[in-house]
Specification:
Blueprint: H1 2-15, E1 18-22, H2 25-35, E2 39-43, H3 58-66, E3 69-72, H4 82-89, E4 101-103, H5 138-153, H6 158-184, E5 190-193, H7 199-204, E6 208-212, H8 223-236, E7 240-243, H9 250-259, E8 262-265, H10 279-290
Parallel strand pairs: 1-2, 1-3, 3-4, 5-6, 5-7, 7-8
Helix pairs in contact: 2-5, 3-4, 5-6, 6-10, 8-9
């Protein structure tokens, strides 16, 4: 049975019109919704790890070498691992500026843009916060962009991509109506997070972030900063800490024990935690763990 499944997967890849690589799993999920069996989607980065530091394995070069389209997050998120892979793949289709290279950050109004860039401010992103996929409303924008690029690269199936997009947008708008209604009923709107991963989600649903466990992006929390954060949480009645899957969890647990707060492990990508393997499950998991 295992061999039969492998053969079917291989055969379906042969009949796909386009080979699409995405840097992260959420883009892969959107692309599959729009492309269906017309695309063979490969996700380069594991959702279990820090998206800033994906291990550049040789196997990723092989995937990139065969790709017709590369979809990246952009905003500097892949700068630490992707450029050398693209260079070594030597695939003209997916070089920056080519039709097969799609930087999704160009279509998003990014927030948290720094006034100046310096290593003294930690590992900041000059273009703004790159974690825009955490806002479920941005999926509508991203789906339209991906559909448009698939149509450009595969004109013979333009009608199919358009129809798939229409169906998806109708379904996603219906999901958003229910999800927004649920989030509007949340009682507590105060949080602390480890890293500024969830700013887009917090902004969308009017949450207030009272600080980060990291004193600066990419900087390990010090004892002084940790104590200051605990005092801030006590003073403001903050009872929820948003912890991602890939940073150390010891500090969050300590802060929770001193502030009577609850730590929630919140996914940053589709598949990062159990039962977040689809777009709807991904955002429902985020909502369920933040809305308390």
């Amino acid at each position: 049975m295992k061999n039969i499944i492998l053969i079917l997967v291989f055969v379906s890849g042969l009949f796909a019109s386009l080979r699409v690589d995405t840097t992260y799993s959420t883009f892969g999920a959107i692309t599959k919704e729009i492309g269906k069996d017309l695309v063979d989607v490969q996700v380069l980065g594991s959702s279990k790890y820090d998206p800033h530091f994906i291990v550049p394995k040789p196997s990723l070069i092989s995937k990139l070498r065969r790709a017709d389209l590369l979809i990246i997050n952009g905003g500097g998120l892949e700068i630490g691992w992707l450029p050398p892979l693209i260079k070594n793949a030597n695939n003209a289709k997916i070089q920056a500026g080519a039709k097969g290279f799609l930087d999704m950050s160009h279509f998003i109004d990014m927030i948290n843009k720094p006034l100046s860039v310096s290593r003294g401010f930690g590992d900041i992103h000059a273009q703004g916060n790159p974690h825009y996929i955490l806002d479920p409303h941005n999926i509508l924008i991203l789906a339209k962009v991906i559909a448009n690029r698939l149509e450009q690269l595969d004109l013979s199936h333009k009608n199919q991509y358009e129809n798939n997009l229409k169906i998806f947008l109708k379904s996603w708008n219906s999901f958003l109506d229910k999800f927004d209604n649920k989030m509007s009923r949340c009682k507590s709107k105060k949080v602390v997070q480890y890293h500024e991963l969830f700013n887009y989600f917090l902004k969308r649903y009017s949450y207030e972030n009272f600080g980060n466990i990291e004193p600066l992006p990419g900087i390990v929390p010090s004892s002084k900063h940790t104590i200051e954060l605990i005092n801030n949480m006590r003073e403001n009645g903050v009872k929820l800490i948003l912890q991602d899957v890939y940073h150390e969890k010891k500090t969050a647990k300590f802060i929770a024990s001193k502030s009577e707060a609850n730590v929630q492990i919140v996914p940053h990508e589709v598949g990062a935690v159990k039962n977040s393997d689809t777009l709807e499950n991904f955002y429902n998991t985020i909502g369920n763990r933040i809305c308390q």
